[in-house]
């Protein structure tokens, strides 16, 4: 699917959020500047979250509790080793279970092997013409 601009990316996130249920995990892959955080803004908007959504690149994780589901927004870009990324994910996953929220993870490559069920979104910036987006359903990734 082609998203032409920032507004379409946010609207796509909003519409996608309507498919989510408590304890959903969304992994977002894409290069720097592809629109990952903008997509999360749309998801948060759809969840009726009132706080301003910002990239957690330096904080690693932001928590938003004002919506119909709490949102945990993680960014693993700065974590260089896999063990630290997995430890952070497991801590946040415990909170996700307790508060029955939604978790969105940007740059999930280091933890994907330990996530049991998730949505995968791949977003890619196309120079001068928007971005492409692909969504993979959790059932595509069930571990047997």
Q: What would you note in describing this structure?
A:
The radius of gyration is 14 Å and the shape is globular. By secondary structure, the chain is α/β, with parallel strands linked by helices. The protein has one domain: Rossmann fold. It has a seven-stranded mixed β-sheet, sandwiched between helices.
Structure characteristics:
28% helix, alpha/beta, 144 residues, Rossmann fold
Give the SSE layout.
Blueprint: E1 2-3, H1 6-17, E2 25-29, H2 36-46, E3 61-64, E4 71-75, H3 82-99, E5 102-106, E6 119-126, E7 130-136
The number of helices is 3
In the CATH hierarchy, the architecture is 3-Layer(aba) Sandwich
Side by side, the strands of the main sheet go 1-7-6-2-5-4-3
| Structural class determined from secondary elements | alpha/beta
Give me the oligomer status.
single chain
Shape: globular
Fill in the CATH topology: Rossmann fold
Q: Mean pLDDT, nearest integer?
A: 92
